[in-house]
Amino acid sequence: MEPRDEAPGIPSVAPDVMCLDGHLFHINYDVPEKITQQLEELYDRDAKYEEIPEHLKAYETEMEDSDVEEAKELARLSENPPNNEGSEL
């Protein structure tokens, strides 16, 4: 049996960021293929941030503001789940 597309008719796209040891790095698109490959190799071996060469750290990025706000909201909700007492399902 051949694998099926997860979403037939919708083209897949390569990611534009990768998380290594809690840090985000640009990959693909405007990043040289050699750099993307080096970052992927580090990801595959679960490298720590201290192991990442300085020339690759130049591709490190911060989360966009909307992503930061969403992450904060999710953290807040996980700490204080909504009280659903008395609600009907």
Outline of the structure:
By secondary structure, the protein is of the alpha+beta class. 35% of the residues lie in helices and 11% in strands. The chain has a 3-stranded antiparallel sheet with strand order 1-2-3, covered by helices on one side.
- Largest beta sheet, briefly? 3 strands, antiparallel
Fraction of residues in β-strands: 5-15%
Order of strands side by side in the largest beta sheet? 1-2-3
Large-scale geometry: extended
The H-and-E topology, N to C, reads as EEHHEH
Helicity range: 25-40%
Number of distinct helices: 3
SSE class: alpha+beta
Poorly predicted parts: none
Distance between the termini: 41 Å
Mind telling me the C-alpha Rg? 19 Å
Number of strands: 3
Overall pLDDT: 82
Keywords:
alpha+beta; 3 helices; 35% helix; extended
Describe this structure in words.
It is a single chain. The protein is an alpha+beta fold. It has a domain at 17-78. 35% of the residues lie in helices and 11% in strands. It starts with 16 loop residues before the first strand and ends in a 10-residue tail after the last helix. The mean pLDDT is 82.
Topology:
Elements: E1 17-20, E2 23-26, H1 33-44, H2 54-57, E3 60-61, H3 65-79
Antiparallel strand pairs: 1-2, 2-3
